[in-house]
Design goal:
Elements: H1 2-23, H2 35-42, E1 52-57, E2 63-69, E3 74-79, E4 100-101, E5 104-105, E6 115-119, E7 122-132, E8 137-142, E9 147-153, E10 172-176, E11 181-182, H3 193-196, E12 197-206, E13 213-222, E14 225-231, E15 239-245, H4 254-257, E16 263-270, H5 271-279, E17 284-295, E18 301-312, E19 321-327, E20 330-335, E21 341-346, E22 351-356, H6 357-365, E23 369-373, E24 376-379, H7 381-384, E25 385-390, E26 396-401, E27 406-411, E28 416-421, E29 427-432, E30 437-441, E31 454-459, E32 476-481, E33 488-494, E34 502-506, E35 536-540, E36 543-551, E37 554-556, E38 559-564, E39 568-575, E40 584-588, E41 596-598, E42 603-608, E43 614-619, E44 632-638, E45 647-648
Parallel strand pairs: 13-18, 36-39, 38-44
Antiparallel strand pairs: 1-2, 1-34, 2-3, 4-5, 6-7, 7-8, 8-9, 9-17, 10-12, 11-12, 12-13, 14-15, 15-16, 16-19, 17-18, 20-21, 21-22, 22-25, 23-24, 26-27, 27-28, 28-29, 30-31, 31-32, 32-33, 35-36, 36-37, 38-45, 39-42, 40-41, 40-43, 43-44
The structure holds sulfanyl-(tricuprio-$l^{4}-sulfanyl)copper and dinuclear copper ion.
């Protein structure tokens, strides 16, 4: 009864909102049957959970945003490639190595494509992989902790866009070169592009138990721009497909020069064939230096340096790669849930081509080729085509699928989504989006098992959709109901960064697997302090190590003297709490990096180099109890060479043994 009544109230509010919108003369979109029905479909009452977790890449913010669907509520912002002062990611001593690359410490990247790990072609909720574009990298997040656990640099590459796109049992995650470069890198004229530049396709093996990645092999391809990828599944399991543009191999003004050819190519790579060639000793180990950063069980990230990588030339491994002619400057490539159909979005194409995997195999078997490029056989467009979607709209980019044999294609230029039937390319519906859609996402929509209830449009331009916020406006996501024949717009919500692709899966797959604390007993950080009696301050030359604890609502020690200007002061703070959702923060005045946000049972280290004499406060930044404001302390900094002795308070210190008030812990 109560829920009925609150339902009506919301319905009324939403209807009023729509009336407002339309009275301003702005497009309201095609809002469901009524706005009230739409509102009820996305309303998740306080205290209740969303049905799906959605993982949206942050684009140029280098992170992953975790949202609940259908509400669009932001649940987490997980730092990956970019430093995050909110919790010290990439600033603490334990996490800094995650940003190591062969170029040094790189605290930012452009992250486009989240990919859930899969078992038998279905998202299994173990890990989320995501690519870094600018400094080619692939990261892996652990979904019991929503933390980044591993980052692998991809050598011999540039512009790692067609990545990570897992195979159906996480055998591999892939990477590809969007901006072909000399490989190995060397000093050559840019005008020698056609002679010296190449685009490598990389396959990194994923360990099925640990998720750890390792580069298995790379394939040296002609110097096109390899743009996107998806793995085959079902009958096409064992293959990965990569779009390419710039088959013209232009190196300047690509806008014009790379739009000459009517068709570019999808590269179909038979990775099982690659495995056989590798086993037969094909390919050459080439020197390559790259970072492989792994978060240890002790919560400390470490870098291992790769020194070489196996590179295969297609000419040395028959049957490894075929080119599928595809109109025109294709962007996305997507494989339908059955694994038979390979769809591509040619940005400048007037149709959406659907290739047939079985026709492709038949053409290969019949050796019916149109020619070859750099030793790679080119198939005939007509012989592999299943059908073309006619008049879909303008600027097709990406496709997702539902569980009823339908595809949904984003049309960037005409700002709409077109729904069509995969088997015969029949257009079924159009829905406008606001505006300029990039990717779109159906939960499970690139797997063998789409959930087919919702679709999320990820839009580039939001002019006039939200309250204006100066020159920079938020990107937006729009949620559609796709359970019926026609797509129905339900909800708009702003996002963090620029989501390119996204993934989603039922919340039930991961919500009960969440780690709630770090077990203090198992804390293996060498600078951990597991009890207040063990707190201490140790000087070695110009380095001072502060072994500090935090518990509601005090630090031990909370008075420190004898620090000197120019010291490197390492605050190793261990959170002694063993309750879910009780982090403590730590910030020191004069520190030039970020705060620490320390989870229960965890140790995190902040380095502070005092630059001036004085007495500086430090405090807890995360409101942890009624006496959170009392969770503070002082550090006294003296001149270099000062006779003030190193001293602190707490059980082992000379500034006072006992705390005047001991809260229970
Ligand atoms: Cu189309 Cu980077 Cu996948 Cu953006 S990409 S939209
Ligand atoms: Cu600890 Cu606030």
């Amino acid at each position: 009864m109560t829920s009925m009544r609150s339902g009506f109230r919301i319905a009324g509010a939403a209807a009023a909102a729509v009336a407002l919108l339309t009275s301003c003369g702005r497009p309201s979109g095609r809002i469901g049957d009524t706005a009230a029905e739409a509102a009820l479909k996305v309303y998740v009452p306080p205290g209740q959970y969303d049905e799906f977790y959605a993982f949206l890449s942050g684009g140029f913010d280098g992170q992953v945003g975790v949202y609940g669907l259908p509400s669009g509520r932001l649940l987490r912002h997980v730092p990956v490639f970019s430093q995050n002062p909110e919790n010290g990611w990439g600033y603490t001593e334990q996490t800094k190595p995650m940003m190591n690359t062969s170029f040094g410490f790189v605290p930012w990247d452009d992250a486009h494509h989240p990919q859930l790990s899969q078992t038998d072609g279905v998202p299994d909720g173990r890990w989320l992989f995501i690519n870094g574009n600018n400094t080619p990298r692939i990261a892996r997040l652990d979904l019991t902790r929503f933390e980044t656990e591993e980052i692998l640099e991809i050598p011999n590459s540039a512009g790692n866009h067609a990545s990570p796109f897992v195979t159906p049992d996480n055998e591999y995650v892939v990477a590809a070169t969007r901006f072909s470069v000399p490989t190995p890198q060397r000093d050559v004229p840019i005008a020698d592009y056609k002679k010296d530049f190449a685009g490598l396709l990389t396959f990194a093996r994923v360990d099925s138990a640990t998720g750890h990645m390792a580069i298995a092999f790379q394939i040296r391809m002609p110097g096109f721009d390899y743009d996107l990828s998806h793995a085959g599944k079902g009958p096409s399991n064992g293959w990965s497909f990569f779009t390419s543009y710039n088959s013209e191999q232009a190196h300047t003004l690509l806008e014009v020069n790379a739009s000459q050819n009517d068709k570019d190519y999808i590269a179909a790579v038979n990775w099982k064939q690659a495995e056989q060639c590798v086993a037969a000793g094909k390919g050459r180990m080439e020197p390559a230096r790259y970072a492989h950063n792994v978060m240890g069980d002790d919560g400390i990230a470490r870098t291992e340096w790769g020194t070489s990588v196996r590179v295969i030339q297609p000419a040395d491994c028959a049957g490894l790669v075929y080119f599928l002619p595809t109109p025109k400057s294709p962007h996305g490539v997507d494989v339908d849930p059955t694994g038979e159909y390979i769809v591509s979005g040619g940005k400048l194409a007037t149709v959406i081509p659907v290739h047939s995997f079985s026709k492709m195999l038949a053409a290969i078997q019949a050796r019916s080729f149109a020619g070859e490029v750099a030793g790679i056989p080119v198939l005939k467009y007509e012989s592999i085509l299943n059908c073309e979607v006619q008049n879909p709209g303008l600027g097709p980019l990406h496709d997702e699928f539902d569980d009823k044999g339908n595809a949904y294609t984003s049309m960037f230029i005409s700002s709409e989504i077109v729904k069509w039937r995969v088997k015969d390319c029949q257009v079924l519906d159009h829905a406008p989006v606001f505006y300029s859609i990039g990717h779109l996402m159906v939960p499970g929509g690139d797997s063998r098992k789409p959930y087919g209830k919702y679709m999320l449009a990820l839009n580039k331009i939001t002019k006039d959709r939200y309250l204006p916020t100066g020159p920079e406006l938020a990107q937006s996501a729009q949620l559609f109901d796709i359970s019926g024949d026609r797509m129905k717009l339900l909800l708009d919500f702003p996002t963090i960064g620029e989501p390119h692709y996204a993934q989603a899966l039922p919340a039930s797959v991961i919500k009960d697997r969440q780690q709630k604390i770090y077990t203090l007993e198992k804390n293996a950080d060498p600078f951990a302090t597991k009890a207040e009696k063990d707190t201490r301050v140790v000087r070695k030359g110009g380095r001072v190590d502060v072994y500090m604890t935090a518990i509601r609502s005090h630090f031990v020690p909370d008075n420190i003297e004898g620090l000197q200007v120019g010291d490197s002061v390492y605050f190793h703070v261990t959170n002694l709490e063993q309750d879910w959702d009780v982090p403590h923060g730590f910030a020191a005045m004069g520190a030039t990096n970020a705060e620490l946000l320390i989870m229960p049972g965890q140790t995190r280290t902040l380095v502070w180099v005092p630059v001036r004499v004085g007495v500086y406060p430090f405090y807890c930044t995360d409101f942890c109890s009624a006496l959170h404001q009392e969770m503070q302390g002082y550090a006294r900094v003296s001149e270099r060479g000062s006779p003030v002795p190193l001293a602190w308070n707490g059980p082992s210190g000379s500034l006072g043994k006992a705390k005047p008030v001991a809260m229970s812990h």
